[in-house]
Design brief:
The protein is of the alpha+beta class and about 290 residues long. It folds into two domains: about 110 residues, Diaminopimelate Epimerase, Chain A, domain 1, CATH 3.10.310; about 150 residues, Diaminopimelate Epimerase, Chain A, domain 1. It has six helices and 17 strands. Strands 1-2-3-4-6-7-8-17 form an eight-stranded mixed beta barrel. A hairpin with a 7-residue loop joins strand 16 and strand 17. Helix 2 packs across helix 6 and helix 3 runs antiparallel to helix 5. The longest helix has 15 residues. The protein is globular. It starts with 5 loop residues before the first strand and ends in a 6-residue tail after the last strand.
Length: about 290
């Protein structure tokens, strides 16, 4: 029997914003090819496929983009947490067992009665990038190295998936995104990257981001929870923030799907990063 996906937009309080995700709450009978085919048909940057474990509140989850399986996806995790709360009554602490490790998800309602979920990342890491990766990424993006923010140097950061972080000096540079899709995709595949996290710092705790995602067959992600978690770890590693601290990442504005990602970063003694967002059901006529 074909699985029926739920449709949720994550990191938003309106279906017109955020990042859409498909969520299948009972994918136990689905083969890999079926999951990939459904993700491709939906066309969202990722869809999540959950299977309940015998332990209460524990689920195996796999994530598929339209082109491939990915090890972890933040926005589909937030969507899954809210979907479980709204469709099964599973609230409080849930644990999603992903290819990257166990990811606790806490669900609740906010002050306006809207569903909200918080994921706690796997242990992150930050590393210096291969210079050829940075040079190639800038070339394929059409970015001048002089336009990078010297206070936020390029790094590769991980919190379930690997992201190249490039910070620019101006909001105008971030807004002008026109890149070589195929060339950047091949470069990212060669360096095991899930997205390129392009960021601009508005103030001490407020950032704007855009995430090219050609390896998933998607030009750009409207909200990237995995990258937000990795970015929080990156800022801590650089000493660019003073933990514990709450950050806000705005994403999707230039796509017409504004998203708000709230990121909590503790000290290095508590390395995991927490990412919080609302998610809302989308009214679709097919799927």
């Amino acid at each position: 029997m074909a699985a029926t996906p739920l449709h949720y937009a994550a990191f938003t309080t309106t279906p017109a914003g955020g990042n859409p995700a498909g969520v299948v709450l009972d994918a136990g009978g689905m083969a890999d090819a079926e999951m990939l085919a459904l993700a491709a048909r939906l066309g969202y940057s990722e869809s999540a496929f959950l299977t309940a474990r015998p332990e209460d509140g524990h689920y195996d989850v796999r994530y598929f983009s339209p082109e491939a399986e990915v090890p972890f996806c933040g926005h589909a995790t937030i969507a899954s947490g809210v979907a479980l709360a709204e469709h099964t009554g599973a609230t409080g602490r849930l644990v999603l067992h992903t290819a990257s490790g166990d990811v606790p998800v806490d669900t609740e309602t906010d002050g306006d009665g809207r569903s909200v979920a918080t994921l706690t990342s796997v242990a992150p890491y930050v590393e210096d990038p291969d210079p050829a990766l940075v040079t190639g990424a800038l070339e394929h993006l059409g970015w001048n190295p002089a336009g990078l923010d010297p206070d936020l140097p390029p790094r590769v950061a991980y919190a379930g998936a690997r992201h190249l972080i490039l910070a620019c000096r101006t909001r105008e540079r971030l807004a002008d995104l026109d890149y070589d899709f195929d060339a950047l995709k091949q470069l990212m595949l060669a360096h095991d990257l899930t997205t390129v996290d392009l960021v601009w710092r508005q103030d001490a705790t407020t950032f704007h981001a855009r995430n090219p995602f050609p390896v998933g067959g998607v030009v750009e992600d409207p909200a990237t929870g995995a990258a937000a978690a990795a970015f929080g770890a990156y800022l801590r590693e650089l000493g660019a923030i003073e933990p514990p601290v709450d950050l806000v990442v705005h994403q999707g504005e230039d796509m017409g799907r504004p998203s708000t990602l709230r990121v909590h970063v503790d000290s290095a003694d508590q390395p995991e990063v927490r990412v919080t967002g609302n998610a809302v059901a989308m009214d679709v006529s097919a799927g």
